[in-house]
Known about the structure:
By secondary structure, the chain is mainly α. The chain has helices at about 5-30, 50-60, 60-80, 85-105, 110-135, 145-175.
Amino acid sequence: MSISLRDNRIRRISLDAMLCGFAILLSYLEAVLPLQLLVPLPGFRLGLANVAVVAVFCLISPKDAAIVSAVRIFIMGVLFGSPTSLYFSVMGGVFSFVTLMLMHLFCKKCSLIGVSVLCAAAHNTGQVLAAVTLFDVALLTSYLPALLIASVLYGSVVGALLNLLIPKLQAVCGKILGYKEERI
């Protein structure tokens, strides 16, 4: 392996680690924010960690985004959750990531707000399906419409944050990884 290829790989891994730390910080922040006062839906969160995952997806690669997402879910689950909450997070994360991949493949013109709304809806759908499989109560699906409405609101907030952060992160990532052109 040439020195420059090895150096670029080290830079990429370092950037992934930094953005994974950012995703963990955002997850922890939203765990301590009292969102239940604004939206009284049990277990609902804003989805701030998705800012880091979508940024990695757009600026580095889908593979790196999957790694950042998986590491964040695992670390948050081990440090602050239970096996049940880890299962819910994995299901939501997988559904969200698959949606992100599908949007990347089939809907290249979709805005970051649109992508974030659809990822939030997919995440909530995955978590409701996790609840149904875990507790075997189909009535839990009646919770989904409220979650989907909240997905539109909070997905829009996350998408707006991405619109603000991506250009700044793009400049940083470009310098670290040596990109000369825009990636998105």
